[in-house]
Design goal:
By secondary structure, this protein is an alpha+beta fold. Helix 4 packs across helix 6.
Length: 175
């Protein structure tokens, strides 16, 4: 999920009984049983990855970019490192992945990056919901799309890369 509160609400909605709250360090995640499935619900804290130069420089223009962990790029995002590490650790034990981030461009980018970069997967199921009510979350889980929304994901990635290329290069040119 995109945020800790959403992870809690999703776990509570999907669990047959009360979900078991766990933590690695101070990062919470939830274990639950739904029918015969064992499910783990983990969370991000917004964007765990950001666009950065592959080789840090202050040259102009700069177009050699990639996704990098936000906590490695900005000290302000240092708190996100522990969430990313928990997702990576839990992913090693997972056999299937479902993205339950907000269903918008930014949510799709957050989920896409987690799936590809943190979980080393090419795709995942995609829950679509507009509210965190039990009924909506159960329906979103049971009716999950078999793939990520690649249109939204590609649009989000394009916006992030173009923002960086245009904004940083113009700033450097003016400087």
């Amino acid at each position: 999920s995109e945020k800790p509160n959403a992870a809690k609400r999703i776990a509570e909605a999907l669990a047959d009984k009360k979900p078991k709250k766990q933590a690695i360090g101070k990062v919470p995640y939830y274990e639950l049983q739904r029918g015969k499935k064992e499910i783990v619900v983990a969370c991000a804290v917004g964007h765990l990855y950001t666009v950065a130069e592959k080789k840090k420089s202050f040259t102009y223009p700069s177009f050699d970019l990639h996704w990098a962990p936000s906590g490695d790029v900005s000290k302000k995002a240092d708190y996100s490192k522990k969430y990313l590490e928990v997702i990576k650790r839990l992913a090693k034990k997972a056999s299937a992945f479902t993205v339950a981030c907000d269903y918008d461009v930014e949510g799709e980018v957050i989920g896409l990056n987690c799936v590809r970069l943190a979980c080393n997967q090419k795709d995942a199921r995609r829950m679509k919901f507009s509210t965190l009510t039990k009924e909506d979350l159960i329906e979103a889980y049971e009716q999950a799309e078999p793939h990520l929304d690649w249109g939204l994901g590609n649009a989000g990635e394009t916006r992030h890369f173009l923002d960086w290329m245009y904004g940083i290069n113009i700033s450097r040119a003016l400087t």
